[in-house]
Each structure stands twice: as C-alpha cells, then as structure tokens.
C-alpha cells in the first residue's frame, strides 16, 4: 500500500468519524435531552448538559480538520514536515483544552447540585482519556518534528 492510498483510506475514516459525530450531535443528543426532560424536574439541567456536549464537540471537529490536512500532506509525500508537527501539536492542545473545559463545567454543575456523583466520575474518566490523547499527540508532534529535522539535514547533504 503506497502513501496515496493510505492517505485516502485515512481520509475516508475521518469522514466516517465526522459523520458519526455530526449525527450524534444533531440527532442523538437532542433526543436524549428530551427524554431526560421528562424524567427530571429541572429542565435547565438537561439543556446545560446539551450545551456542554455541543461545545465539547467543537474541538473534536476542528481536530478532524487538522487530521485531514495531515493526511493530505501524507498523500503528497510530505509525511515528516514541521507543518504536520505543528498540526499534531494543535490537536494535542485541543484535546487538553477540551478536557479542562469539560472538567470545569462538570464541577460547576456538581456544585450547583445539578450533577450526579456517578456522572462526575464518568466525566473524570473522559477527562483522563482526553489527557491521554493530548499526551499521545504531543509525543507524535515531537517525533515528527525530530524526523522533519533529520530529513531536512539529509536533504542538504545529498
């Protein structure tokens, strides 16, 4: 499998993830909010959670756009570039920012007595996953930057 076909496969996966995320944001979350409204006395809590989930999805879609750009560079035989390293670093920053935002919003709802402790624990687990993703992308950014520097040096010696 060459780089162009690998890039195309990865782009198809990015499209699939984007479509699934969009369907969840547009169809599933509002439907879930309506169901929770019927079970709870406090309707504002359901809407606060819907807004939270919509806002936390924005960095995920931005990360998909950055991933698309990385896959385009890979398809153009520009795998190890400073641009890709920068994009990976930005994805890392988006992941950590999203995790911090979710944590803060979750704590606000918890102290307003609008959050169940089990939901708090589940969100802390999701925050942990966000931090892990941030560390992975930061590491990849560092490695791609080192590879780009090595490639640059070898291009000058030839």
Model description:
This protein has helices at residues 3-39, 43-75, 82-111, 117-157. The protein has 158 residues and is mostly helical. Helix 1 (3-39) runs antiparallel to helix 2 (43-75), helix 2 packs antiparallel against helix 3 (82-111) and helix 3 packs antiparallel against helix 4 (117-157). The relative contact order is 0.10. The mean pLDDT is 92.
Indicate the radius of gyration in whole angstroms.
20 Å
Query: Biggest sheet, in brief?
Result: none
Number of helices: 4
Question: How far apart are the first and last residues' alpha carbons, in Å?
Answer: 27 Å
Q: Please state the oligomeric state of the protein chains shown.
A: single chain
How much helix, percentage-wise, in residues? over 70%
Strand content is under 5%
Number of strands: 0
* Low-pLDDT sequence parts: none
* Structural class by SSE content: mainly alpha
What is the residue-mean pLDDT, rounded to a whole number? Answer: 92
Order of helices and strands: HHHH
Global outline: elongated
Kindly summarize this structure in a few lines.
This protein has 158 residues and is mostly helical.
Topology:
Blueprint: H1 3-39, H2 43-75, H3 82-111, H4 117-157
């Amino acid at each position: 499998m060459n780089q162009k076909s690998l890039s195309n496969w990865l782009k198809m996966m990015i499209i699939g993830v984007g479509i699934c995320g969009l369907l969840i944001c547009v169809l599933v979350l509002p439907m879930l909010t309506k169901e929770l409204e019927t079970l709870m006395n406090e309707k504002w809590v359901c809407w606060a959670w819907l807004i939270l989930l919509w806002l936390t999805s924005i960095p995920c879609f931005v990360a998909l756009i950055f991933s698309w750009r990385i896959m385009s560079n890979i398809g153009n035989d520009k795998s190890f570039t400073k641009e890709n390293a920068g994009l990976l670093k930005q994805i890392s920053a988006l992941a950590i920012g999203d995790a911090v935002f979710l944590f803060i919003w979750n704590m606000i709802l918890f102290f307003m007595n609008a959050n169940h402790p089990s939901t708090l624990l589940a969100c802390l687990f999701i925050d942990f996953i966000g931090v892990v993703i941030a560390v992975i992308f930061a590491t990849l950014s560092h490695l791609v930057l080192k590879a780009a520097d090595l490639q640059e040096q070898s291009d000058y010696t030839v």
